[in-house]
Each structure stands twice: as C-alpha cells, then as structure tokens.
Amino acid sequence: MDITDLKKKYSDTSIKEKKEALEQRMQNAHGNGENMSQLSMDLGYYSQLDSYIDSLKKNIQRYEEAKQILSEEGSELKELANIELKEAEENIKKLDLEIKKLQIEREFTDEDDSRDVILEIRAGAGGEEASLFAGNLFDMYKSYSLNNGWDVQIIDSNVSETGGYKEVIAQIKGKNVYKRLKYESGVHRVQRVPITESSGRIHTSTASVAIMPEARDIDVVINSEDIRIDVMRASGAGGQCVNRTDSAVRITHFPTGIVVSCQETKHQAQNKEKAMANLRSRLYEKKKREEDEKRSNMRSSQIGSAMRAEKIRTYNFPQNRITDHRIKQSWHNIESVMSGNLEQLIEDVKEGIQLQALENEK
After folding, report:
1. Model pTM?
2. Distance between CA 224 and CA 342 in Å, rounded?
3. What is the pLDDT of residues 330-353, one digit of tens each?
4. What CATH number does the domain located at 117-214+297-361 have?
C-alpha cells in the first residue's frame, strides 16, 4: 500500500465542492424548477463519496502518526502503535475499495435501470430435461423477485409433458428490476443426472434467458397498420380454465416479423394489453441493440456484449458449483441459488463485468 499515492489521489477537494454546490441548489430547487429526482440522486452520490474520502483521509493520518511512533527509539507506545497501524491500514484498503465501487456504480448507471422487465426463458438443447431446467430457472427468478417484493405475472407459457416449460414469458414489476437482472440474459447450461435417467449418467442441457426493459408507449411507436391481432381459444395446460371463449390473443408485427401472444387470463382485453407490452419491449430491445452496435465507445460495446453473451453460466449439480464464464468466477451454493438466493451472485457478476469493461478501456 503506497500512502503517498493515496494522499495525492484524494487530495483533490472537487468532490466536497460539488457536494456543497448541490446542497445549495437543493435549497433553491423548487423556485428554480430543477429536476428534484436527478438532483437528489446526484447529491446522494457526492455526499456518500465525500464521506468515504473524509474517513479515508482520517485513517491516513492515523497510519502516519502510528508510523511516526514506531520510528522513535525507546517509545513505550510501540505496541499500541502497531495495533493502530494495522487497523488504519485495513480501513484505508476497505474505504479505497468502497470508493471505487461507488464510482463504478455511478459510471455504469443505465437510463433503463429503474424499469420493470419482460423475462423470457426458453428450453434449448436437451429435450425434456431442458424444459425442466427452464422451469427451474423461472422458479429461481420468481423466488428472487418475491424476496425483493416484486410482482411476477406470466404473460405466455408452453408447459412440457414433464411439467417444465418449453417457453415462459413473464412481466416482473418492482423497484430497479432491470438494474438487478440485466446481466442475466444469455444461455444457461445445466449438468446433472435427470430424474428420467435410470443409469445415473450426467446430462448437459441448456435454456436461454432474455431480460428486456419494459417499454412505454413513448419509447416505441407501433402503427395500427403494422400489426395484425388474432383472437382464439386458449389451449394447453396454461389455458384449461379459459378455453370456452376467444380470450387468447396473438399479435404479429409485420415490419420485424415479431409474433407475441398471451392466453393467461380469462379476459381478452387483459391478454391484449400484456401481449402489446411484450411487443413494445421486444421492439425497444431491438432498437437499443442497434444503437449499441453503432456506438464506437469501448465500454458500451463491452457491457452490451456481456449482456448478450452466448453461454454465460453453468450449473453443475454433482460438484455443487455455479460458474459464470464472463467473469470466470464460481460459487458453491447451488441449491441456495436455485431457491432464489441470487443476491451475492448478481452483485459479483455486475462488479466483474463492469471492472472488465474499465480494464479493457485502459
């Protein structure tokens, strides 16, 4: 740890000045017609950063005072100074890391972070085992969502013979849903012995996950002449209680060829509303992807590709191991994660992807 470099790094007073300027603006915000939400977010960031920097500076002072005592011959305070030195050093390292995390979080804020999402999970390679895994993933995200106080509603589903999902599409509503789930998109792979396998052989199956920010009417313009809306009777396991009326809705978007459907409620109007929400989000995601590809910014490219990677994660049940291939990190609590305890994994993945993007930009 180089104290001289750290002192130089945090000698700048601009953070404190920005915080004080924002406090002044906040006092006069109502009269000036400022954006209170943005002002509050900015003030929160600079206040926290300033607090961390002040604490770090105080610990640097403690560190230097302890060093001074240890350099004096015959001092009776050397034992106490050693304890003080170690504590200050630990605090400095911890605060420096917290400052870095806070700055990274700020730098990678996405305009869609506060949005609700459309979650799509589709079974891939592996037959019935893949559909069972798709069902497991949906249960995992549903449990995680409920733990966070979010609302989950299925828009459309195709249940397999063994009770899994060939496909399931759901709407998740709550605070900062997209911010928490946006790095979950990609192909998830499972390695385990299927319940249908009598010989005990390990199978590998896949399922794809897509997380799309829910679009508003103003984000995407859908012209009535560009779509066809078909109504029909609901079918399959998901629609047994609603198939006496033409309640299921299918919408085709001609310019893109995107087709969405919903048959999850008894009411045609509700199914149409959910299907339209799904279509808007697909079109918004397509628009965002095209914009990302046009940008020359390395960071946008890195983050965008990480969010749309192919095989992103492997769930190895025999070894009780989950590995995220983007950040090359593993966790050994597979049952807990599959039960919805995703918080630490999601946080580690977010930090890993963001740090990689920063490193590649240097």
Report:
1. 0.75
2. 41
3. 999 999 999 999 999 999 999 898
4. 3.30.70.1660
